[in-house]
UniProtKB/TrEMBL annotation:
InterPro entries noted in UniProt: CBS_dom, CBS_dom_sf, CBSX3_CBS_dom, Diverse_CBS-Domain
A Pfam match: CBS
Signal sequence residues: none
Record-given protein name: CBS domain-containing protein
Length: 147
């Protein structure tokens, strides 16, 4: 299975924020609806170029040092600038390894420099569980047929 299979099921909607938005605005977007865990930072107006990513985790960690003043900072002040991405052709195994290696829960999907979607660890786990269920069913059927 590939990332494109996940996007085919969940869709290619990506929630974005502008780098000059305040953290208060970003937090409101994250809270929803729909409640989401991360926003892609894209300033180009077409949601194509990924300038960064900001997650709930980024905001909480920054809150530990800036307290209530955090809400007045901009997304650019807090976002992760070196964004780990994946492509639609990446395998689920590759994406799981990348998420684990970098400790990221969300990966923007980029193809030819353009933002194509966003996947979360939840999406990956859901897909992997479906694969495992199918594999178990096939193995059960093979066992039953051979006995």
């Amino acid at each position: 299975m590939k990332v494109s299979d996940i996007l085919r099921i969940k869709g290619d909607t990506v929630h974005t924020v502008l780098s000059w938005n305040t953290i208060a605005e970003a937090a409101a977007r994250l809270a929803g609806p729909p409640a989401i865990g991360a926003l892609v930072v894209s300033d180009d107006g077409f949601r194509e170029r990924v300038a960064g990513i900001i997650s709930e985790r980024d905001i909480v960690r920054r809150f530990a040092t800036d307290g209530a003043g955090l809400t007045r900072l901009t997304v650019a002040d807090v976002m992760t600038r070196k964004v780990v991405t994946c492509t639609p052709d990446d395998s689920i195994a590759e994406v799981m390894a990348s998420m684990n290696r970098w400790r990221h829960r969300h990966l923007p999907v980029v193809e030819n420099g353009r933002l194509r979607g966003m996947i979360s660890i939840g999406d990956v786990v859901k897909q992997r569980l479906a694969e495992m269920s199918t594999e178990a069913g096939v193995l059960r059927d093979i066992y039953i047929a051979s006995h």
